[in-house]
Design brief:
The protein has helices spanning 25-33, 46-50, 54-58, 78-91, 105-109, 120-133, 153-164, 187-196, 210-220, 237-245, 257-275, 277-292, 298-305, 311-323; strands at residues 3-5, 8-10, 14-16, 39-40, 44-45, 69-74, 95-100, 139-146, 169-176, 201-204, 224-227. It is of the alpha/beta class and 340 residues long. It has 2 domains: 3-245, Aldolase class I (TIM Barrel, Alpha-Beta Barrel), CATH 3.20.20; 257-323, Orthogonal Bundle (Non-ribosomal Peptide Synthetase Peptidyl Carrier Protein, Chain A), CATH 1.10.1200. α1 (25-33) runs antiparallel to α11 and α9 crosses α10 (237-245). The longest helix is centred in the C-terminal third of the chain and has 19 residues, at 257-275.
Length: 340
Amino acid sequence: MALQIGTLFLPSKIVQSPLAACSDLPFRLIAREKGLGFCFLEMVSAQSLTRENAKTLRMLMTLPQDRPLGAQLIGCDPAMMAEAARILEETGVDLIDLNLGCPVKKVVGNGEGSALLKDPRQAELVFRAVRRAVNKIPVTVKMRKGFSDPSGDEAVELAKRAESSGLNAVTVHGRTQAQQYGGKADWDAIGRVKKAVKIPVIGNGDVLAPSDAQRLLDVSGCDGIMIGRGGLGNPWIYKNIEDVLGGRRSEIHVPSIAERKLTLLKHLALEREFQGDRQAALNMRRITVWYTQGLPRNKIMRVSVCSTMDCGEIAGLICGFFDSLPADVPPPMTPILLAE
């Protein structure tokens, strides 16, 4: 189940998407420990990066074991995107992706993210500027299937322009900007893009289990699978998909209560190590939601976590919660607060 993107060879076609405020270094280290091969930094603003914004620079934090690693840029000015791409290439990342998918109103209002679906000429200027600026690593683009047009025509148009500009792969999220994070991902639209270009096409949207991944491959014929929110609190998903699709086992691995507790505690420890206690305590307010979705009596524990800034107390709350659970709790569920 290998995937080649330009000069980058990945032994697995399962990749984790960039997720704002989620795919930080602790998240990536946990995911890699459980079987993820390729991951992205959080989305980076080209404007903030070229201005050396301190918060943006902290988002580039990585370690040697955090490889191979992709970085995703968002912006609409070709010159600024090119300069930001040069900076990212110098940091040693293995791939640069261009964001044409973010549907957030503030981003779209700036002409960035999925707004470029409506302006293919401007998008192509960005593609060509970044491709000229980056010499050693692949450049890819992630887009939605369209802005408001559900047909997928906009994604096909942009994918062709990306290919002609020298980009090495396209990721398609099967929703429009107008859908935001609602509705169902359209895998047929991903298939239309796959038929329109020769470069690899990665499918994204609503892959939460091995059965979803297999159906996405069957429907679209895509070359790779990008996991979004399915990886939140469920770092076992990558190996589960890889093993089931590869025929190594027929049933998914369901982590025990003890394994889930220890994984969440390690996630907390990594947050403390790399983000500091204050930020770790704040981050755990959402991270505990990821790991406890669908479990009994989780609301009481979440409220308690949100009521303290003491990381030691948070660790105790985690232990107390998981130790009180019956042994036959269900498999990890996908949080509903975020989508790809």
